Amino acid sequence: MSTREGMEIAFAAAEAAALCRPEVIAAYPITPNTHIPEHLSDIVADGRLDAEFICVESEHSALSACCGASATGARVFTATSSQGLLFMGEVMPIVSAMRLPVVMALGNRAVSAPINIWNDHSDIMSQRDTGWISLFAANGQEVIDMIIQAFKIAEHPHVMLPVNVNLDGFQLTHVVEPMLFPDQDEVDRFLPPYTPFATLHPDKVVSMGTLGMPDIFNEAMQAKDAAVIGSLPVIEAVWQEWERHFGRAYEPVYAYRTEDAEVLLVTMGSLSETAEAAIDALRDRRVPAGLLKLRLWRPFPREAFTAAAKGARVLAVMDRAVSFGGVAGPVGAEVRACFYPGPAHPLIVNKIIGLGGRDVTVENFIAIVEEARATTVQPEGYQLYGVRGLS
Amino acid sequence: MKVVNFELYAPKLVDKGEYFCAGHRACQGCGEALAIRLMCKALGPDTVIVNATGCMEVVSSLYPTTAWNLPWIHVAFPNAASVGSGVEAGLKALRRKGKIPDRDVKTVAIGGDGATVDIGFQALSGAMERGHNLLYVCFDNEAYMNTGIQRSGATPFGASTTTAPAGKVSPGKQVWKKNVPEIMVAHRVPYVATASHSHPLDLITKVKKARALQGPAYIHCLSVCPTGWRIPPHACIKVARLAVETGIFPLYEVEEGKYRLTVDSAPLRPVEDYLSIQGRFRHLTPAHTAAIQHRVTQEYHTLLEKIHHLRAWAEVTEP
Fold first, then answer.
1. Does B18 reach chain A within 8 Å, measured CB to CB?
2. B134 touches chain A (CB under 8 A)
3. Residue A343: its pLDDT value, please?
4. pTM (two decimals)
């Protein structure tokens, strides 16, 4: 039986991680993820979880320690945000290439400068191409569920990749919500102990992280790419299993009131909840608008996305990061590329919103949908939405 | 019982196993490869090696080959100590939970001087402060040799490197070598030592001591690089020995804060004997050599003072 409880989502993330019985946790404090490792260290200090908690001296060392611990065959968890993720940046692609199933909760926060502790997605987007699986949670329940799912996905023998679970800083990390917490028995049934393929132990000597010359590097990258692409059916299977165990359905692209929609908003993370409210208001006014919520960012669920977007005339794609000087925001570019080989191209409006914690309101989404409805030709590039001082 | 001819018999007691095997691609006369081979013999099979990026990682792990007969991992340049922290924590947790056999497997992180005294310094300090059961061994060849002999924090005064070259107005490196063993002593770790591949039994004894204790330990091993030091490969051992005999690289250990000279080189030979046979010091003037001699003498006496002072202190305080 699950238990319903009101809790700050960062604490809930820690509780969810603890339910997965990690053996090593290494983390370094950075706002806004800090309450996750704080609460986990409480859980360890109270003896509710038998784990080694390493209070490292930097995020670089946090992920490095996770890497070493995971290589011994331990189940490993970490959490960070923003600059912390960037400091981990050197180790990020190594963890995935070494096929170490580390799970990370990422309290998304803007990247400096100016220094800003509030939410956007520029941290994860800077690490997009490191070979990690990226899940985006829209609310506290999804945070709990996705952290538990993440271990199952990461440790699947056909996957063996690290997973980051993205939860928006403050908008999620510091919000108190009522959530369903699965029981330990239920989680144990869903998530068996990790069975590693190879470990660092003298009983079976292996060398890990060896030097790859040009004659092998291409092949190594192909293997890593195949693993990331190949994780998609596993992720979907894990989500189906989750639904059987816990009754909550997950899919890579969640479609909300998309029937006969002329305009579809496309969002990731906590914006999705606000967007749902906007869609409800628009539908009340008989505006044919719907929402596509991306839960899976890497691997990108191209088929599911194009299928879900079928029939819409305009897609209004929201980004929370800027690809400076690029053709679109990261999500905008992905969505455009998604449709390129196909015969039918919806118009794609790309807005960059909610940077560095700027509030995004229901009214903002309504205005964006109205603007999208009035769009008849494909607009150039992208627009930073709500910039003050611009006419 | 007094052991007669210890030097004659002791080598026979050294582990015959080879854990860092032949076939690696190190240069001729590489002191570091020799030092690592000796270190591994002292550690024995129940060891996990964490290797920072550098010469040894490159020469020993060219896929699909490996020179390592011990479980070995390389992750990146600055993080051997933090990866080692994770390995140690992982082994500890898994052993406690009965998921791996219940025996003592030592985690040993190794790195060159760049990986230790420069880019990996923070990770090293953190790992030592946290008290992991981790031995860190720095193999100090006094420059970034893997990338082509660039100056590091461990490069000695006056050495010519590719980024601090001797020129018309510069004698090479113009500042002194960073003393990392002393910084490790300041971390109050249970065991700190210096070692050299010119003194293999001393090196092995120190590694065994560090292996035996449950806690953090640091060994700083001078590792002669004939390529970077501009000496012939056959001079590797001779030059390392001269570093000890001139007092430039004294061999000592610090157990629970107590200093002990493990190789007494008195009377010290002049530094000139060491400097003059290396190409990297070829450009030094007599004034430079005199400055180095002054510094070496001063530092050596500081070390001796610590040894005597702390010995005297121990005599006063211990019954």
1. no
2. no
3. 79
4. 0.96
In a domain, B9, yes or no: no
Phi, psi of A179 (to 5 degrees): -140, 155
Neighbours of B170 (CB within 10 A): 12
Instruction: Compare all CA atoms of chain B with the CA of A49 and give the residue at the minimum distance.
Output: B93
Residue B288, pLDDT score = 98
Q: What is the mean pLDDT of chain A?
A: 97
Tokens of A306: 């194009």
Contact A149, A13 (CB under 8 A): no
Nearest CA-CA distance, residue A250 and chain B, Å: 32
Which residues, including other chains, have CB under 8 Å from residue A9's CB and lie 6 or more apart?
A: A139, A140, A143, A167, A172, A173, A174, A175, A176, A177, A179
Per-residue HEC secondary structure of B58-78 comes to HHHCECCCCCECCCEEECCCC
User: For residue B221, what are the CA distances in angstroms to A224, B183, B249, B274?
Assistant: 38, 15, 10, 17
Q: How far is CA B84 from CA A199, A385, B49, in A?
A: 14, 46, 8
Indicate whether B2 belongs to any domain: no
3-class secondary-structure state, position B304: helix
Alpha-carbon distance of B100 to A214, in angstroms, equals 37
CB contact A97 to B (< 8 Å): no
Residue B29's domain is classified under what CATH number?
Answer: 3.40.50.970
Distances, alpha carbon B267 to alpha carbons A243, B193, B199, B306, in Å: 79, 21, 18, 18
Closest by Cβ to A211, choosing from B58, B88, B125: B58
Interatomic CA distance for residues B268 and A234, integer angstroms: 68
Sorted by where each starts, the structural domains of chain A and their CATH numbers stand as 3-246 (3.40.50.970), 253-384 (3.40.50.920)
Question: What backbone phi and psi angles, to 5 degrees, belong to B211?
Answer: -65, -40
Task: Give me the residue label for tokens 């009035």.
Answer: A374
Categorize the per-residue pLDDT at B137 as very low, low, confident or very high, splitting at 50, 70 and 90. Answer: very high
The angle that helices A59-71 and B121-130 make with each other, rounded to 10 degrees, is: 70
Q: Which of A24, A76, A213 is facing B62, going by the closest CB pair?
A: A213
Domain total for chain B?
Answer: 1
Is residue B10 in a domain?
Answer: no
Task: Provide the token pair at B8.
Answer: 């004659």
Best mutation target among A100, A130, A200, A218 (most B Cβ atoms within 10 Å) is A200
pLDDT digits (tens, 9 = 90+) for A45-104: 999 999 999 999 999 999 999 999 999 999 999 999 999 999 999 999 999 999 999 999
Instruction: Say if CB A121 and CB A182 are below 8 A apart.
Output: no
Whether ipTM > 0.95 holds is yes
| Domain membership flag for residue B7 | no
Within 180-199 of A, beta carbons closer than 8 Å to B belong to 193, 199
C-alpha–C-alpha distance, residues A144 and A137, integer Å: 9
* Strands B191-196 vs B217-222: parallel, antiparallel or unpaired: parallel
Left (φ > 0), alpha (ψ -120 to 50) or beta: where does A313 sit? alpha
Domain span at B176: 15-317
Query: Does residue B129 belong to the interface with chain A, where contact is any CB pair within 8 Å?
Result: yes
Q: What is the pLDDT of residue A74?
A: 98
Using CA of residue A24, residue A29, residue A33, residue A38, what is the dihedral sign? positive
pLDDT tens profile A322-339: 999 999 999 999 999 999
Radius of gyration of chain A (CA): 21
- Cβ-Cβ pairs closer than 8 A, A with B, add up to 172
| Four-residue CA torsion sign, B257, B263, B265, B271 | negative
Contact A201 B48 (CB under 8 A): yes
